[in-house]
Amino acid sequence: MPIDVEKLLGYSIPTVRQTLTRRETAFYALSVGMGQDPEDERQLSYVDYSRDLRALPSMAVVLAHPGFWLADPRSGVDATQVVHGEQELNLHAPLPVEGELVGETSIVGLVDKGPGQGALLYTRKAVTDAASGKLIASTLNTTFIRGGGGFGGSATPFKPSPTQSVGEPDFVVDLPTRAEQALYYRMNGDDNPLHANPAVAAQAGFTRPILHGLCTFGVVCHAVVKVLADYDASLLRGMSLRFSSPVYPGETIRSEIWRDGSFQARVLERDALVVSNGLAYLGGRA
């Protein structure tokens, strides 16, 4: 059924203040599969909090996260029909491994795909340093609400998607996920039951709980940092992608990456394209 636009646009998404610890930074990297090679010193620098720890850039999507606020009936949305459509991340400063952060999330766009079709909800989050107010990262999240269209809104896309490179990729990176990975990942603050409860997954039309789209985002970020930055996360300035199909925990994600920063990903077990229109931005910082 169509979303309740008045409720949705009037919903006050809570501002979140987070005390980030080194353990949480390491846990995030572990939750997206870092450290599966215990002899790879480059990966260990992201998961071993006893050393000179680094933050995987994709962690910005969970920092000061407001949680699954669409599950609140006051949002005017049927939470069982919500899936992640696209994700964009921009880094304005190096991510800290610990400290006080503030996250402010707001609705910035809503697209009506038509009666009986879906709706696209765009939310932007700004993550700032609590002490200085300095902007650290910003994210743009596209949520697809199945069957939520027909409320009389604009059908104009909020933003164009990047053009995918053609030809053979320059790099191919296979990274396995674990059967219980969604259960780990949800401890970062995304507790949508779609990723843990078989009954909820079945109600949404899936054979079993699926992996969080943002967990897939983290796995692909790992692949990008590995081949385009030789594990130097400070070189990644931003990345965006479209989620084309869900990943089931336990599947292997193959990231196909071009030197210009464009990428896509598929799962080997089903040869299904799960990420498309990907683009990573790299460069030094002033």
UniProtKB/TrEMBL annotation:
Gene3D superfamilies: Hotdog Thioesterase. Transmembrane segments: none annotated. Residues 168-262 form the MaoC-like domain. GO terms for biological process: fatty acid beta-oxidation. It comes from the Bacteria. Pfam families: MaoC_dehydratas (PF01575), MFE-2_hydrat-2_N (PF22622). Residues 20-147 form the Peroxisomal multifunctional enzyme type 2-like N-terminal domain. One of its GO terms (molecular function) is (3S)-3-hydroxyacyl-CoA dehydrogenase (NAD+) activity. InterPro entries: HotDog_dom_sf, MaoC-like_dom, MFE-2_N. PANTHER family: PEROXISOMAL MULTIFUNCTIONAL ENZYME TYPE 2, PEROXISOMAL MULTIFUNCTIONAL ENZYME TYPE 2-RELATED. This is 3-alpha,7-alpha, 12-alpha-trihydroxy-5-beta-cholest-24-enoyl-CoA hydratase. The lineage of its organism: Bacteria, Pseudomonadati, Pseudomonadota, Gammaproteobacteria, Pseudomonadales.
